[in-house]
Here is the input.
Amino acid sequence: MDPTGATPAWPDSYGRVILDEIDSTMREAARRAPHLTGPTWIMARHQTAAHGRRGRPWQSPAGNFAATLLLRPDDPPGRAALRSFSSAVAVYQALSTCIAAERLSLKWPNDVLLDGGKVAGILLESSGYGTRLNWLAIGIGVNLVAAPDIAAVEPRALPPVSLKGQGAQALDAEDLLYRLAVCFAAQEKTFRDFGFDPIRRLWLRHASHLGQVITARTAREEITGTFETVDEAGNLVLVTPESRQAIPAAEVFF
Here is the structure.
């Protein structure tokens, strides 16, 4: 991570809590939110009731990585949510320290791929009123040693994979937490100093299927078009024969 070969220190001002077992790091972050004043990583060696997007169960076998970063961003909700891209870039960078970067890619809106299969997912949850956020929780799950049962995956979804299953070097959860915290802190500094654009450009550099035809399924319809870019608001931009569409939320299929 450091071109000089030196080991970076744990980032200043970021706390960390490591638990043996918990229902969910996202739920634990919500419970601790009223009492935490600074950004804090909460990692669990085992989760008993993990969940993904839209409340879907998230399989979390022992040995895999499960952590939530709790932040108190001084941003409106839409801007705060752009940290899903910062997080994806940080996961990409952390994993590229133990596996060839060209085998990794990023899938809009919040997945990290290894050899074309899903190796990591990111989930954002928040609490607040109107334009003010009390806190933002960024949940990150990485398949280090085992991938979920393929039967639990939606038929059109990409197959889940694990680092171990794809022949990556051994990496335990606490080691990944350290690498990820260092990478995220650097992305957060960029975000605060220069805004979303450099994060967006870096994300696009590693985007899967950029310039190719993909399908986005929203709550109302499916849209198939060429993946042109991600815009300044984080929307997926597809070009179809009829129009150019900016899509704020959808599930993407290749």
Q: What stands out?
A: The chain has a mean pLDDT of 91. The radius of gyration is 17 Å.
